[in-house]
Amino acid sequence: MECPFCAEKVKDESLVCKHCSRDLRVVRPVLREIDTIVSDLEKIRRELDNVSARLYRRRHPVRTFATHSIAYILIPAILLVAAHVIITIVLNVSPLFLRIASVLIPLPFGFAIYLIQKVGYRGAALVGAVTALLSVFCMLTVTGLNDHVPILPASWVEWREVLEYSASIALAFLTGNILGILTLQLVASSLSQVDKPNVAAYRVAQMLGPYVGEDQLRRRARIIQELMKAAGPLFGILSTAAGSLYAGLKGILGT
Asked: How big, in percent rounded to 5, are the helix, strand and coil portions of the chain?
């Protein structure tokens, strides 16, 4: 913690500041109470931001639909189709580059839809699916017109490749969204490091080593609690990213 008298860093369990020699036993409970209030206010602010975003979407459905359609569906679809044209028609290089682009392009849009619009993973999954279907249909149209072949696939193998490619785009979009959720959680936890750890975190902290004092035990339990909070979104990122890469590269690497 920071000494309230000289603003120097001292250990949480210190009784006297080693820099200014002031007694910290009296001010420590007050500082903890202030930090707790600040942490609670930060949580309330985040909840208000989410509620405000939901209320705005309900009050302005047409504007919200137009914004989401243009910023998070149309623009990434245009970029994906442009990458398809450049890689497969203009440059005529390996389709591996197109599959990599299909993973990288949707990521920032999925990230932005949570940070800006506060759209969670369910809404992001829907937006990502629509983006994928629109992009793939436009790619099929471009390929059909350029090669003078039917736009829709003619065999199950071609349909499977289309579905895998669509899944790759949708999962990449969802990966970006979960990454945005995890990022905000980490930022919020770094701004409020005084949250009282839960019982499970305390028990794990006690199991990891001998009793070393209440302050150090609380600090250890707080770190464990933050790791527990990040475990769910992190697992989601790894799962969706792995699924996106597998769906995107399976058709190429398997041939």
From this structure: 75, 0, 20
